[in-house]
Amino acid sequence: MTTAVVTGDIGAGKSTAAKLLAEKLSCPLLDADKIAAELWHDDEVKKIFVSRWGSEILDSSGEIIKTEISRRIFFNIEEYKFCNSILHPLVMKELGVRSEKLGAKSKNLVIEIPLLFEAQANLLPACVIFVAANFETRSLRCFEQRGWSIDELKRRESFLMPREKKISMSDFVIHNDGTLEELKQKIFSLNF
User: What does pTM read for this prediction?
Assistant: First the structure.
């Protein structure tokens, strides 16, 4: 089975690139962020974070308030590390389980893992594709799609491994500063 992992800059178009790659390979797509979102509904996970941060992170129905989590982890490196120390292993374990199930049905698999290197994910042998875009493009996308200011983007990126290091650890780099059609051409021309 060929496993391709898509990662990259915040706002670079990782999700779009991953969907296009799954289309090219005619295979399933797994998304680490979706798995993480599912984990926030798990009672055991909620207990861990309520124990750490208090019940004010829960809404009236007992569900996690994502803005409360963001407020804690993206303003304090220790809380960021704590959150990742809990979620990353759980996400990677679930990705492994789902990959195994899909591997029996498909000869190829695409996995989108935004924090691949930060999670120290061991998915060898996997082809790693880093989706990059210039800061101006990414800041505009983050503003339009997430409502983030330039300062918010910079602040969140300050918690991440330097992009140059991540690029050096990747097998392919796709620059996504252009149109969707240009991205599609780049993805469809990949050979691995």
Answer: 0.90
**CA nearest to 49, candidates 33, 66, 29, 26:** 66
Alpha carbon distance 91, 108 (integer Å): 20
Return the sign of the alpha-carbon dihedral for residues 158, 163, 169, 175. positive
10 Å Cβ neighbour count for 176?
25
Please give the average pLDDT of every successive group of 10 residues along the chain, which has 192 residues: 91 97 95 97 97 96 95 93 95 91 85 90 78 97 95 94 95 96 96 83
Residue 179, phi then psi, degrees to nearest 5:
-85, 170
Chain position carrying tokens 């390979």: 25
> What domains are there in the chain, each with its CATH number?
2-188 (3.40.50.300)
The sheet carrying 108-112 orders its strands as 29-31, 108-112, 2-8, 127-132, 172-175
d(CA 134, CA 83): 28
